Amino acid sequence: MKIIEYEEKYLNDVRNLLTELEEYIVSIDDDHLDQVHPEYYEKMALLDLEEVKKKNGKCFLAIDNNKVIGLIMGIIIEFDEYDYLDYKCPKEGEITELIVTSKIRSHGVGQALMNNMEEFFKEKKCEYVLVDVFAYNKNAINFYEKKGYHPRMYTDIKKL
Fold first, then answer.
1. Nearest to 96 by CA among 67, 66, 53
2. Domains with residue ranges and CATH for the chain
3. Is the pLDDT of residue 134 over 90?
4. Residues in a beta bridge with 97
5. Which residues contact 96 (CB under 8 A, 6 or more apart)?
6. pLDDT by residue (tens digit) across 68-112?
C-alpha cells in the first residue's frame, strides 16, 4: 500500500468510496434523516474536492494494486477578525472525509491516512485538528479516540 495525493484518474474510485460511506451512514442513522440522493455519486466528490482546493487542503489516497482502498480529505480553517472575541484563533485543520473500504478496515489504512493528514496540518502550522463524527458511527468514534481525539462540542436533535 502507498499513500499519494489525489490524482484525477482516481475520481471514480473516490466517488465509489464516498458513496460506500454514505450508504453506511444511512444504514446506521436511527433518525432516518440521511439519504443517498440520486445525484450523490456524480456530485459529492466534485463538491468535496472543490472545498479542499478552495480551503488550501489536501486529499490523500491509499492505493493498493492500482486501486483506491481509502481516502482522507482535509481543509485549513482560517479565522476572521471577529473570531478573536470568543476564541484564541489558532489555525486549525479539519478532516472532512475519512473512508476505508469495508473490505480492508482494521489493517492500518486509516492510521496511515490520518498520519499523512496530521503531518500536512503540522507543516501548515495548524495547532488543532477537528473532525465531525456521526454520533451513531461508534466504529469511527472509537478510531478517533484511539488516535487521541476527544469530543469538544455536541449537537442535540429532537424530532418534532
1. 53
2. 2-146 (3.40.630.30)
3. no
4. 73
5. 48, 51, 52, 57, 73, 74, 75
6. 999 999 999 887 777 766 776 678 999 999 999 988 877 889 999
